[in-house]
Amino acid sequence: MMVQSVKNRGELRAFIHLPAKLHRRHEKWVPPIYAQEWKYLSPEKNKAFPYCDVVLALAVRDGKPEGRIMGIINRRSNELRQEKTARFGLLECPDDAETAQALLDYIESWARGRGMEKIVGPMGFSDQDPEGFLIEGFEFEPTLATYYNFEYMIDLVTSAGYSKEIEYVVYKVPVAEPPQIYKKISARIAKRKEFSLREFSKRRELKPFIVPVFELINETFLEIYGFVPLDQEEMAALA
Q: Core-most of 86, 95, 97, 152, by most CB within 10 Å?
């Protein structure tokens, strides 16, 4: 088996479609929207590429891809936090320690060669991308916020020397109507006339608020793990 970087469109296609082969009998796994996958991995269309170093790699055995991984160095995040940290993401492979180790080794070597001192994952370019392994709750429907990985993936990564950096918890809260306490808070704020509730019936009415909301996110999300402030070009793309 060998690990090699993705160099052409055919290898990128294999990279994008490999998870469907690995997860074909995984009951709750849902395929991605492939047009978005191509856009996400395109240096021309993904606005994060200009400030990130990126490598995609495939583990190949007997001429066939059987694992994949992405490496990212987010220079903007590192400058903001005064770190030398790389990220791994999109890790997929069968329940095989050799394949997982080889993929992680490849990204570690790549990151070390660029002066990095630490690697975390799975993470994407920013906190808006899926991040973290699912470690429990496999009986529930998957969410968009994280990867829907096989249970064995945790053992493969910890066996390669990784340990927990941060823990996320997803809560499932059924709400028939807003709790009474929320109604009281809303009524109290409305009396002060500091805030007003805006509702929209047309998309064009919402448009003037999109960039100001992203600017507010930049101010308030700085302490969130993995957050990277958006620039104007990224705000426009997201809008």
A: 86
The pTM of this model reads 0.86
C-alpha angle 10-58-65 in degrees, rounded to nearest 5: 75
Q: Is 113 helix (H, G, I), strand (E, B) or coil?
A: coil
Per-residue pLDDT tens digits for 156-203: 999 999 999 999 888 888 878 888 898 899 888 888 888 888 899 998
Q: Are 119 and 111 spatial neighbours (Cβ–Cβ below 8 Å)? A: yes
Residue 11's Cβ-count burial label (10 Å; 0-12, 13-18, 19+) is middle
Specify whether the CB–CB gap between 48 and 234 falls below 8 A.
Answer: yes
How big is the CA angle at 12 (ends 238 and 18), to the nearest 5 degrees? 100
Torsion of CA 209, 215, 216, 220, to 10 degrees: 160
